[in-house]
TrEMBL record:
Molecular function GO labels: isocitrate dehydrogenase (NAD+) activity; magnesium ion binding; NAD binding
Family to which the UniProt record says this protein belongs: Belongs to the isocitrate and isopropylmalate dehydrogenases family.
InterPro entries: IsoCit/isopropylmalate_DH_CS, IsoPropMal-DH-like_dom
Protein name: Isocitrate/isopropylmalate dehydrogenase family protein
Length: 321
């Protein structure tokens, strides 16, 4: 029995995750789902966004399907997602970007860099420490190289011309690529952000540090129709969590108009990760058929609601099975 923890989170997480879960259950009736509450809504209600018990529940799952959580500006609030990524040691954030003429995987280091959580505020300045460790870089480089070995090549996104921490990162990635026999090039992250939009076919697997990968993947979403399209995996040695790249979208939450594709594709990634790429392909193909039939949510220029779009994918999934 495979146990899937389901975390809706906040905002449109409550709308897109149930759609993805229903499709997942349709392709794999053997999966067992259990809900875990995490996020700002829970914090408002109970004073805690995520606690030790939550972490233990998430650890007990074979995989986690996650929506999105709201991070309020409140200085006393600890980001639930950062807490989970750290507690479960989900060091690799894998973000595939596929569309017409685009087939890129961004592999983002997910536990350190500028998001290492080492920061403080003084009267006249505030400091955030950017930590790039040998161990952290080696394991993300290996993850990226193993993906690139089955594809074409690796690009190392960096700012080593300015940041010493990135010189270490580049050296380690280069060495791992040579060891894996993967052709690799380096690109400065600012130039790369433009080039990925102008010449997406130049890119295959891109490995980079935490915040650069965060920004680069939102930028690259432009190539395939926006944030509503992109799934991601947060993967560690023992645990894995799959979630849309987008956030809780408070500007459209509660209206039933969010695009559920990113969440549905995250469910498909979850299946591939748990050893069932065939069912994942059934889901991916169903999404393509629905889009080809001209059914779209508003962000893609259509007028289908979240549920309506999900129902169309579900129909295609059942036909494709
Ligand atoms: P966001 O991704 O929530 O929204 C950015 C823009 O994209 C908004 O205009 C939104 O309406 C649109 N959008 C996003 N997903 C969409 C979808 N599925 N369908 C249609 N339109 C969609 O990012 P934003 O506004 O910067 O952050 C909102 C909240 O989400 C914040 O509290 C932030 O901290 C949190 N967040 C959480 C993430 C996570 O849980 N992994 C990731 C990013 C942000
Ligand atoms: Mg982001």
């Amino acid at each position: 029995m495979t146990g899937i923890a389901v975390v809706e989170g906040d905002g449109i997480g409550h709308e897109v995750v149930p759609v993805a879960r229903e499709i997942l259950a349709a392709v794999r009736p053997d999966l067992e789902f259990f809900e875990v509450e995490v996020g700002y809504g829970r914090w408002e209600r109970t004073g805690s966004a995520c606690d030790e018990e939550t972490i233990a529940d998430l650890k007990s799952a074979d995989a986690i399907l996650f929506g999105a959580v709201t991070t309020p500006p409140d200085p006393g609030y600890r980001s639930a997602l950062l807490q989970i990524r750290r507690a479960l040691d989900l060091y690799a954030n894998v973000r595939p970007i596929r569309g017409e003429g685009v087939d890129i995987i961004i592999v983002r280091e997910n536990t350190e860099g500028l998001y290492s959580g080492i920061e403080w505020t003084e009267p006249d300045r505030a400091c955030t420490v950017r930590v790039v460790s040998r161990r952290g870089s080696e394991r993300i480089a290996r993850c990226a190289c193993s993906l690139a070995a089955a594809r074409r090549h690796l690009t190392i996104g960096n700012k080593a011309n300015v940041l010493k921490s990135d010189s270490l990162f580049v050296d380690i990635c280069r060495r791992e690529a040579a060891r894996a026999g993967v052709p690799c090039t380096t690109r400065f992250i600012d130039a790369l952000s433009l080039d990925i939009l102008m010449h997406p076919a130049r890119y295959d697997v891109i490995v980079t540090t935490n915040i650069f990968g965060d920004i680069l993947s939102d930028t690259a979403a432009y190539l395939v129709g926006g944030l509503g399209m992109l799934p991601s995996g947060n993967i560690g040695e023992r645990h894995a969590l799959f979630e849309p790249v987008h956030g809780s979208a408070p500007d459209i939450a509660g209206q039933g108009i969010a695009n559920p594709i990113a969440a549905i594709r995250s469910a498909a990634m979850l299946l591939t990760h748990t050893g069932d790429p065939e069912s994942a392909a059934v889901i991916e193909e169903a999404i393509d058929r629905v889009l080809n039939a001209g059914i779209r949510t508003r962000d893609l220029g259509g007028n289908a609601g979240t549920r309506e779009f999900g129902a169309a994918v579900l129909r295609e999934v059942l036909r494709g099975k």
